[in-house]
Every structure is written in structure tokens, then in C-alpha cells.
């Protein structure tokens, strides 16, 4: 990104904010609660027919400039209050408007369920929403963390700057089955294939609303919405004007046993943001945002020995073949004569990665109303930061940046949008590879000479063997500890200049010779939507739309086979939706269908059908049939990575393996192991030639299909209603069937044909296996097995007469593997039970409010490639978040004192990820000044 160019753009935006355009009059007033006689900050006021509005400030006051003379109509709304329409005959006279408290939030408007505005109660599928007030008053440190309090949500923390959201099972730390949009823009770095939490997202000051659609949403949102979609909306500069500033300071790592920094080990946390928006008349508006967060990340310090070749009772720190979960370099293991299995001495993660993390977000937007009903928008976002991410390894996503541009034209019935995402990995690296590579820089031969990296592992094990066997006069034989000490002579120690020099050198080397990661992948996307309802004379509600996306991958050969140039491919999709109200508007039927085509795969059609029956205005029942699919990520398709002299990871797109004869001519790894074991048992009895002939038919030709999208079919029923004047309920049950899960399988490819002319395994190919001339490949493919998952959620909200709001929700999730092979199924990675309880009051005392949220979930097994698909237990845990706020209306300021994980329980949310403790903070927010 050209920083100077964007700095000039921001400076220009600030400059033009000083220009004043003449206004005829201003509509001003005060919005109040008629019972408490207190002002209502955050109420929305719109001039009907002018597409012009604002929100009340902390004093409940508002001011809207308008050129129109004569009578006006104001529409006033606020969550928790009944909407109101007010006629204005004299715009110069200040107004006092009273909003009556609503008995529930059932009349809230949502967009995400059907891509059009509709009442929450009549949404055809389950949907959750956080409005501007919920965002402002969340007890969590950020609004994004507060999403965890919505029912059905699973949030996994990989680090202070990276949290991943999932719904309805099959969770992961990098969730490519879940779509995340900000103002309609997919904010995933294309090379990742999933959104990196809110690292490249919205600041709290600019977040206006959040809608969560759990479950298959591909019929409306395409292949990425396999398990659901999260839709975040930023604040419109026409409505939310003025200067807003946030200063938040806190501490974490209190009493952290893994940090040696005094009795408390506390670390400073900073999160600061600024937003300015200005509208000039009813035509032009702009906004600029900047936010910066810095802190000390959570530590991954689980040193459990996970070496599956060692009996469980013999594992631990004294195991010569120890493979510590968060220790890297000790994965390199050999079986040595007499000594048995031995691993190299590894390095702790905290000595390999940088736990000082930050997140920088800059964005600006220009809005121009061509006509009162036609608006043009240009927005630019630039984000850069550091995170520690748990994937197949632990990665330091260091200095990673994402640049986005968006152009949009939108009217009352349509929008057309174009956007681009471009990523740059900068100094990111793989901590496991770093540990292994450092271990290859210092090894000495028996003469004391440092050997080259390609000989380091062999030399280290040779030293260990010599010491253990008693051939080294100064070392006691058959002593594992003494043998390791001898083999480790010259080992680089963390913190020394030599260690740091090698660490810095290797992280700068990208590819198999180092630990660095390069990705300069980009994508651009165009989409549009048109509402045909009025054009069809309101016979039915009809919505159509489509999109086109192009990927451009470049890793310079470090991950993909792209040294010769970028890998470019595209996909497109189109959808239609028809809704019809029947039975005097009590029954609403909706049918949707979408067709998607990726150039590497067959086209897919994903339908959805739903019905909503409103027995009364208080009781609403819904049922739906939903389908979803997920295209393989760029890595699933195009990775071509050598991870050793005989092993290559190969993506499943047909073009990625063209000419390599792997999918066509290989044996399964399982059958190759059986052949090798049988040959070894016979060779001393009958000789090598006969042993080969006796066992070659154990070899089995692989039948691995090229990769294809995953599929899901799901059925859901639900109820949303008001049981009495103060208690509302929302409940649902779903059942889904999944197939075509993307997975890895290992095959062995010889040079000779795997089958002879008789259709049986070829003896020449079998001989190549014995001679070590066959190549191992880890292939991306799909499994044909079917599995099912079901679940239910129940949410209750109760408002007391005294103004307290109490919420409780629970989620039950169940996975049925049926008759599937466990190796062919994605990990469910979801607790069976979890629950949230919230309690809050906006005015427990004059200008004082509070909110408390408690989260609990059951223990469960976590399976991921980080631990070679071996299950690891995530213990049950609970989190308590709380905040108390004090409003100073005269200063337009809110002071907040809060804590996440108030009880400071160090909890692990994914096996191999860090233990997350408490964060305690104080913030001050100045809002809507200089309007």
C-alpha cells in the first residue's frame, strides 16, 4: 500500500471538514424516557422521505440540518422502545419527544436472514443481533468478543489479537466454513481462505450492528457460508456524525505462572481509537477511522508429551523420545540401536515467537448521494498486525497486512458493489519450522566441527548413539541423559546473541530452507442485487442477485507452485428468492435458490425453503430446509510443498498435479506399510526376491478423487415469541447431514506402473518401494462418508419493572458419526452443552449502568492437524465478564471499568492454543463531539 497516498487522502478529508455549506434550517430536539424523565442517548431520528438522519448524543439531544421548508415527518426509533412518528410544522422550534418502553425486542429489524429488511420475529431462519446499544454496553473488552454471549456461538481464542467464530459444529482455529462480511465485504485474506477474527475488521467506535445467521446459508451467501454467516455493519457518516475518541488501558497476565516478571507478572494493554464523520448537506459525507491495540499475547505452554509411539505411562519429561505439544524441534525422531526411540531436544514456543502483538486499523469512506435515493460510496481499509495462530503448526502472523478498496452504488431497490483484498505476509513465520531449523545450525561432528544443516540431524543422532553405546570415553554408556548432553554440545541457548541471530536469519528465509512465510495473494469481487417487488406490482417479494470473484495467488514457490507466475482462477454465482404472504399475512413462504460455479469444479445448486406462521403478533413459528456447500480453499487446491526429502503435500485441483502421475499411479500408504512389514518378516527366510513376490499383492492401488466441495443438507424448526409482557423466548432445533468432507490422505508413488498387465501389483514398482525410490504424497481429497449433527438452542429475556434485563441461553450440540470412518470426517470440535447468563441495567443510579455476562461450556475433545489429528482434551471452563459505566452527559463522555474473565481462570479453548487469563481495563469514550 502507498502509505503517503492514503495519508494525503485522510488529510484532505480532514481539510474539507472545515468547509461549511449553507443550510436553511435545523430540526433540533430532545428524546426522553417519559417514566424516568431521563434523556435517551443513541436514539435514531430520520426525516421521512429525505434519507437524512442522526442519532441523539449523550444528553439525548439531536440536530438535523435540512433545506426543506414546510411540514416534516420524523421517524424516531431506539432498541427497547416503541418507534414513534412525529410531525414537525416549524423546524425552528426545539422538540421534546418521549419514547415509551417496549415490552420486548421482537420488533427489531434484521437484514441477514433474507438479504432484505424484515421483522426479527418473521425471519425465516434463526438469527441473532447486537445493536448499537448492545455493542456500546458489552461487558467484554471489545464488541467482537461480546459475540460469544449470543446463543449458539463457539469462539476460540488463538491469541490476544485473533479469535475465531463458529456455529453448529466442526469448529477450527481457521474456520473456512463460516462467512464474515463487513458492509457486505468478505474481509478474509485470500491466501488464508478464512477471516482472521476482527484483526482486519471494525473498531468499537465504528461498529453499528452485528447479525449472526447460524447454519447453512449458501443459498443466499454462496460457498463460504457453509456453517453460517456473520454480518457486521459500520456507522453511516450521514447518521453518526462528529468526533469520537476512545482511550482504553488495562492489564493482563496477572499471576500468570508462565511469565517470569515479578510477583504479579502484569502486562500493559492499550486499545485506542478515533473516528470523525461529517456530512455536508444531504449530498456528501465522509468518515475516517484509526485504531491501535497493543499488548502481551497469551502464552502457549502445554508441554504434554504427545508421542504416540511411547506407552502413555512412559511419556513425560524423562522420555528420550519426548514430543512436547508446545515444544518445537523435538518432532524429529529416530530409533537408535540399543537406545530405542530418541527425539532431538526442542525449543519452547515462548523462545521462538514474539508475544508482543499489535493491531493497526485505518479506514476512510466517501459517501455521495447522486439523488435522494441513489448513493455512491468509496471506502478504503488498511490493517496491519501481529497474531499467534494455531493451524497445522503455530504461526507467528507477524506484520501481516490487508488492504481493501470498495466501490458501491446503491439505491432503494438495488446495489452494485466491487471490492478487492490484497494481503502481504511481511515477516510471518512457522514456529515449528523455526525450532527445527535452529536445531540444524549448531550440531558438531565427533571432531568438534559444525556440520552443514543437511547433515545436522544425522550427525546429532550419530553423536547420541556413540555416547549411549559407550564409545565416548568421557560419557557413561547406556545413560540417556548423558547421551543427550553430549549430543547437545554447542546447542544455541535462547536469549544469547548467537541464538537471536540465527532466529532472525531463519525467519527471513522463506520456503523449506527457513521458517518464513510469503503470501502476496489477492482477490477482487463484484456483486449486485435487485429487489423486483415493486416492479412486479407487489404480487410477491422477489429478489435476485449474483457475483463474480477472481483469485490471484502468489507465494513465490514457498507454498504453491507459482515461481513462474501467479495462479489465477475464478468463480461466479447467481441467486433468486421469492416470498409470499398468505392467510391474511399470517403465513409467509419463502423459496431461494443459488447456482455457483468455480472454474475448477462442477457447478452446484443450493436451494432453501422456509415458512413462518404468526399465530398472533406475539407468537411466531418457523421451519426451513437449508443446503450449503464449501469450495476448497486456495491451499486445499494448490499447495505444493515439500516437507522432507521424500514427502510432498499436494493440493487437489487437477491442474496442480498435472504431469506428476500421482492420483493416477500410486499405492495407499496403509497397503505399503503392510507390504513392507510382510517383506521384512519373510526376507531372512526365503530371500529378497521371493519375499517380494510373496507380499507384493498386499499393495493396493489408490483411488483418490480430485478435490470437490463439501455438502450439507439441514432442516430447522423454531419459535420466537412473547410469553407475557416482560418475558420473550427464542428456541430452535436443527438436524443436518454432511458429506464430501475435505481431508488428507497419504499415497506412495513409484516410477513404474503400479499394476502389471495382469491387473495385479507390479513387481518392479514394489522393488522401487524397497529401494526407497518411491515418493510419498499427502493429497487433498474428499471422503464419501456421511455423518449427521443436530442441536438446539433456547434463549430467554426478561425485563423487570425496575429496569433490569436478565438474559439466559443454552445450546446443545450432538454429533453422530454413523458408519463413517473416523479418519474420513472433519473434527466436530464442539462442546455438547454451553450456556450464557447476562444481567444489566442502564440506570441503576443516576448516569450509572452495568452489565455482567457469564459463559460456561462442557469439556470436549479437540482434534486438529496441529497434533496430527490425535484428540486432545479441552477442559470445561467458565468466563465472567463485567463492566460498570458512568456517563457524563455534559462532556459527552462515558467512563467504563471492566474485566473479561474476571476470576482470572487460565483456560485453553483449543488444544495446543494458549491459556487465556483475565484482562482488566478502564476506558473513556468521548462521543459525537464537534458535530
From TrEMBL:
**Entries under Gene3D superfamilies matching the protein:** Carboxypeptidase-like, regulatory domain, TonB-dependent receptor, beta-barrel domain, TonB-dependent receptor, plug domain
Tell me what topology the record assigns in the membrane: Multi-pass membrane protein
Per UniProt, the keywords (alphabetical) are: Cell outer membrane, Membrane, Receptor, Signal, TonB box, Transmembrane, Transmembrane beta strand, Transport
**InterPro entries per record:** Beta-barrel_TonB, Beta-barrel_TonB_sf, CarboxyPept-like_regulatory, Plug_dom, Plug_dom_sf, TonB-dep_rcpt-like
GO terms (molecular function) for this protein are:
siderophore uptake transmembrane transporter activity
Q: Which GO biological-process labels does this protein carry?
A: siderophore transmembrane transport
What positions does the domain TonB-dependent receptor plug occupy?
122-229
Q: Where in the cell is it found?
A: Cell outer membrane
Q: Name one Pfam family in it.
A: Plug
Q: Which PROSITE patterns match?
A: TONB_DEPENDENT_REC_3 (PS52016)
Location of the TonB-dependent receptor-like beta-barrel domain: 385-902
Provide the Gene Ontology terms for cellular component: cell outer membrane
Signal sequence interval, chain numbering: 1-22
Has keyword Transport? yes
Tell me its family: Belongs to the TonB-dependent receptor family.
**PANTHER family, per database record:** HEMOGLOBIN AND HEMOGLOBIN-HAPTOGLOBIN-BINDING PROTEIN 1-RELATED, TONB-DEPENDENT OUTER MEMBRANE RECEPTOR
What is this protein's name? TonB-dependent receptor
Q: What is the lineage of its organism?
A: Bacteria, Pseudomonadati, Bacteroidota, Cytophagia, Cytophagales
Amino acid at each position: 500500500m502507498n502509505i503517503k497516498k492514503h495519508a494525503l487522502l485522510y488529510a484532505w478529508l480532514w481539510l474539507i471538514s472545515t468547509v461549511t455549506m449553507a443550510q436553511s434550517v435545523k430540526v433540533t430536539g430532545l428524546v426522553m424516557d417519559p417514566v424516568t424523565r431521563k434523556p435517551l442517548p443513541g436514539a435514531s431520528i430520520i426525516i421521512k422521505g429525505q434519507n437524512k438522519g442522526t442519532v441523539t448524543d449523550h444528553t439525548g439531544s439531536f440536530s438535523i440540518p435540512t433545506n426543506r421548508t414546510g411540514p416534516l415527518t420524523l421517524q424516531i426509533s431506539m432498541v427497547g422502545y416503541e418507534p414513534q412518528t412525529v410531525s414537525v410544522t416549524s423546524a425552528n422550534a426545539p422538540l421534546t419527544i418521549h419514547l415509551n418502553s417496549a415490552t420486548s425486542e421482537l420488533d427489531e429489524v434484521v437484514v441477514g436472514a433474507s438479504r432484505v429488511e424484515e421483522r426479527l420475529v418473521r425471519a425465516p431462519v434463526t438469527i441473532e443481533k447486537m445493536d448499537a446499544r448492545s455493542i456500546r454496553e458489552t461487558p467484554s473488552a471489545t464488541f467482537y468478543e461480546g459475540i460469544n454471549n449470543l446463543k449458539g456461538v463457539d469462539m476460540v481464542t488463538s491469541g490476544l489479537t485473533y479469535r475465531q467464530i463458529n456455529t453448529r459444529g466442526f469448529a477450527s482455529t481457521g474456520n473456512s466454513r463460516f462467512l464474515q462480511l463487513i458492509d457486505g465485504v468478505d474481509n478474509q485474506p485470500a491466501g488464508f481462505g478464512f477471516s482472521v477474527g476482527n484483526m482486519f475488521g471494525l473498531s468499537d467506535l465504528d461498529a453499528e450492528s452485528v447479525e449472526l445467521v447460524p447454519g447453512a446459508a449458501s443459498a443466499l451467501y454462496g460457498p463460504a457460508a457453509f456453517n453460517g454467516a456473520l454480518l457486521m455493519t459500520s456507522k453511516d457518516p450521514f447518521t453518526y456524525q462528529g468526533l469520537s475518541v476512545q482511550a482504553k488501558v488495562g492489564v493482563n497476565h496477572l499471576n500468570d505462572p508462565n511469565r517470569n516478571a515479578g510477583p504479579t507478572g502484569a502486562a500493559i494493554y492499550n486499545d485506542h481509537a478515533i473516528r470523525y464523520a461529517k456530512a455536508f448537506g444531504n449530498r456528501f459525507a465522509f468518515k475516517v477511522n484509526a485504531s491501535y491495540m497493543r499488548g502481551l499475547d497469551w502464552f502457549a505452554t502445554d508441554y504434554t508429551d504427545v508421542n504416540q509411539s511411547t506407552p502413555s505411562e512412559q511419556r513425560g519429561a524423562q522420555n528420550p523420545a519426548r514430543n512436547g505439544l508446545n515444544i518445537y524441534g523435538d518432532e524429529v525422531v529416530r530409533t537408535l540401536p540399543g537406545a530405542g526411540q530418541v527425539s532431538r531436544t526442542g525449543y519452547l514456543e515462548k523462545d521462538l515467537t514474539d508475544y508482543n502483538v499489535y493491531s493497526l486499523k485505518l479506514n476512510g469512506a466517501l459517501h455521495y448521494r447522486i439523488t435522494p435515493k441513489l448513493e455512491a460510496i468509496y471506502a478504503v481499509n488498511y490493517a496491519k498486525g501481529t497474531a499467534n495462530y494455531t493451524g497445522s503448526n503455530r504461526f507467528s502472523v507477524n506484520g501481516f497486512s490487508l488492504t481493501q478498496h470498495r466501490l458501491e452504488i446503491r439505491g432503494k431497490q438495488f446495489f452494485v458493489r466491487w471490492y478487492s483484498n490484497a494481503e502481504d505476509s511481511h515477516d510471518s513465520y512457522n514456529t515449528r519450522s523455526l525450532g527445527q531449523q535452529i536445531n540444524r545450525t549448531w550440531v558438531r561432528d565427533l571432531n568438534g566441527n559444525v556440520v552443514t544443516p543437511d547433515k545436522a540431524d544425522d550427525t546429532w543422532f550419530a553423536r547420541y548413539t556413540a555416547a549411549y553405546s559407550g564409545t565416548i570415553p568421557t560419557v557413561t554408556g547406556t545413560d540417556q541423559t548423558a547421551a543427550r548432553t553430549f549430543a547437545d554440545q554447542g546447542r544455541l541457548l535462547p536469549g544469547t546473541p548467537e541464538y537471536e541471530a540465527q532466529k532472525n536469519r531463519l525467519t527471513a528465509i522463506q520456503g523449506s530452507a527457513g521458517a518464513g512465510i510469503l503470501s502476496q495473494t489477492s482477490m477482487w469481487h463484484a456483486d449486485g442485487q435487485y429487489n423486483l417487488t415493486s416492479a412486479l406490482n407487489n404480487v410477491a417479494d422477489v429478489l435476485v442477485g449474483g457475483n463474480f470473484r477472481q483469485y490471484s495467488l502468489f507465494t513465490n514457490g514457498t507454498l504453491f507452485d507459482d515461481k513462474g507466475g501467479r495462479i489465477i482462477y475464478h468463480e461466479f454465482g447467481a441467486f433468486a428468492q421469492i416470498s409470499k404472504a398468505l392467510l391474511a399475512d399470517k403465513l409467509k413462504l419463502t423459496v431461494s435458490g443459488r447456482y455457483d460455479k468455480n472454474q475448477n469444479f462442477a457447478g452446484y445448486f443450493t436451494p432453501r425453503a422456509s415458512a413462518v406462521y404468526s399465530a398472533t403478533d406475539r407468537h411466531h413459528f418457523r421451519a426451513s430446509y437449508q443446503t450449503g456447500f464449501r469450495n476448497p480453499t486456495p491451499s486445499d487446491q494448490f499447495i505444493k510443498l515439500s516437507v522432507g526429502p521424500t514427502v510432498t503435500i499436494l493440493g487437489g485441483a487437477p491442474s496442480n498435479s498435472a504431469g506428476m502421475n500421482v492420483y493416477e499411479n500410486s499405492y495407499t500408504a496403509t497397503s505399503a506399510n503392510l507390504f513392507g512389514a510382510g517383506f521384512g518378516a519373510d526376507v531372512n527366510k526365503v530371500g529378497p526376491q521371493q519375499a517380494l513376490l510373496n507380499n507384493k499383492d498386499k499393495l493396493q492401488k489408490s483411488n483418490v478423487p480430485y478435490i470437490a466441495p463439501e455438502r450439507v443438507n439441514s432442516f430447522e424448526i423454531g419459535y420466537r415469541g412473547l410469553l407475557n409482557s416482560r418475558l420473550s423466548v427464542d428456541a430452535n432445533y436443527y438436524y443436518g447431514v454432511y458429506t464430501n468432507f475435505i481431508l488428507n490422505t497419504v499415497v506412495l508413488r513409484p516410477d513404474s506402473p503400479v499394476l502389471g498387465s495382469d491387473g495385479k501389483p507390479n513387481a518392479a514398482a514394489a522393488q522401487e518401494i524397497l529401494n526407497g525410490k518411491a515418493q510419498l504424497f499427502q493429497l487433498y481429497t474428499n471422503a464419501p462418508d456421511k455423518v449427521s449433527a443436530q442441536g438446539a438452542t433456547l434463549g430467554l429475556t426478561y425485563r423487570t419493572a425496575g429496569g433490569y434485563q436478565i438474559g439466559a441461553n443454552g445450546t446443545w450440540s450432538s454429533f453422530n458419526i454413523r458408519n463413517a470412518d473416523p479418519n474420513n470426517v472433519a473434527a466436530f470440535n464442539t462442546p455438547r452443552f454451553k450456556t450464557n447468563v447476562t444481567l444489566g441495567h442502564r440506570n441503576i443510579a443516576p448516569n450509572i449502568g452495568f452489565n455482567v455476562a457469564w459463559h460456561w461450556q462442557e469439556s470436549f475433545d479437540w482434534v486438529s492437524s496441529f497434533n496430527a489429528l490425535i484428540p486432545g482434551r479441552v477442559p470445561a471452563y467458565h468466563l465472567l465478564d463485567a463492566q460498570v459505566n458512568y456517563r457524563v452527559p455534559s462532556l459527552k463522555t462515558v467512563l467504563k471499568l471492566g474485566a473479561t474473565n474476571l476470576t482470572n481462570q487460565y483456560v485453553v479453548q483449543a488444544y495446543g492454543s494458549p491459556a487465556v487469563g483475565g484482562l482488566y481495563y478502564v476506558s473513556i469514550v468521548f462521543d459525537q463531539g464537534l458535530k
